[in-house]
Amino acid sequence: MELEKEKQSDYDLMQRVKNGDMLAFSRIVDKYKNRLMNVIGRMVQGTEEAEDIVQETFMRVYQHRDSFDFRHCFSTWLYTIALNLARNELRKRKRFKFFDIFDLQGKEAEIAVEMELPSNLPQVLERAIEGLPEKYKMAFVLRDVQELPYEEVAQIMNIPLGTVKSRVNRARAILKEKLKPRMEKYNALSKGTLLPVSIL
Amino acid sequence: MRCQRVRYYLSAYCRSELSEGRCKVILEHLESCPDCRREEGVLRDMIGALNKTPHYEVCADFTGRLLNRIGAERFNETRTRAFFPKKTPVIGWTRAVPAVATACLILTFVLTGGLKNMYRQNVPEQIASVTTQNLDNSYMTIQPKSDHVLAQHAMVSTAGKDWAFKNQLARYNRIRGLMNAMQSQNDFASYSSKVIETPQVCCGPRILIELPSGSSSMPVTGNSQIRMVSGGDGSN
Question: For the residues B204-223, what does the mean pLDDT come to?
């Protein structure tokens, strides 16, 4: 019901945007900018690049406002544009890879410190998500981070529903395997069955 | 249900994505299997950590910058439309380049002589020059060309490429035959024509043919000429 209401609201706003109402467009931007940023930021792993992509997405929405088909869901259209742009960005990066040795050294040290601290679990999980293969990451972020229904994820990614479920499940399994040792250690610590050496 | 199967559905179970029946089966298994329960604990912790992961957010002036960019684009669009309205679009490079190339080709063709050269290539030279001597506007000189030109024409005509040369060659042969006949019979007086011996390089003698009275010029066209040359009776 809530979803239907939101869809209708999007349609109304898009109709107004089609008629040249910039206020309606800015409402759409305000509604979706952080949602898109949350997905794209995780996909491209760079705040500036992600913001550029989000901005470009809204530009495309405005430029092609007349071609929006009201039979389809607006958010699906929006996410599809954004993820296509993100894919292009990732493809570009694959072509031109640059490594900063000093930067890598710093990151390694940072990761090592984080892995030792149990309180930084969300950050560690964030890094584990970054390390997922692209296709699993996209499905996982849309489903588990953004909490979109499976059907919408399938439409956005243009793949069958079963494939989406399989990819999400696979991504969860990969993450679980990566985090399992650390989680168990964390659980043991919290239950007082295992104490770190530094405390003893 | 086996552990492997339960673990496959475990993440979906933790997120309440499974049907009621399957949930019940998994719950029963979890009560009896400590390993799978541990797995469930890890997954639930992971979901909890996922909710605590930092959210990416755009910067504060994002909307303002975006609207400014759209405004700039709209301004450019309007200006472009004002200078180049859609009804008269500027020719794109994809169309302009072939058009310019074709124009260049036509220009080159015209400047280098074009059809004239092509015609010359097909009809290089007359096999006999025909001039009218206008002492009293009643004689015409037929001068056959040199042998090598005739040979060339003969080759062209035997190749069957140009009917015009065939005509020319046939005409020449008729005239040549007439001249030979006149010379062999040595009977110039019976014809209203004269053979004038002039120093030639490699051509035969010139022949003056009397034109019919009243005509100032005569087209050299095959049979009509021969009949006329033969003395007015029209027999030859």
Answer: 43
Asked if B143 has any chain A CB less than 8 Å from its own CB, the reply is no
Closest CA to A137 of A125, A122, A123: A125
User: Which residues of B are less than 8 Å from A123 in CB distance?
Assistant: 53-54
Domains and CATH numbers, chain A: 1-98 (1.10.1740.10), 101-200 (1.10.10.10)
CA distance B53 to chain A (A): 5
> Please, are residues A154 and A160 in contact by the beta-carbon 8 Å criterion?
yes
pLDDT at B194 over 60: no
Higher per-residue pLDDT: A18 or B173: A18
A147-187 residue pLDDT tens: 888 999 999 999 999 999 999 999 988 988 888 777 666 66
Residue B224 one-letter amino acid? S
* Spatial separation of the C-alpha atoms in residues B9 and A128, rounded to whole Å: 21
| Beta carbons of B66 and A58 less than 8 Å apart | yes
Is residue A82 pLDDT above 70, yes or no?
Answer: yes
Of B11, B57, B66, nearest to A29 by CB-CB distance is: B66
What are the structure tokens assigned to B114, written together?
């074009």
**What's the pLDDT at A195?**
46
pTM of the predicted model, to two decimals?
0.57
Residue in B50, B59, B73 closest to A145 by CB:
B50
Burial of A137 (0-12, 13-18, 19+ CB in 10 A): buried
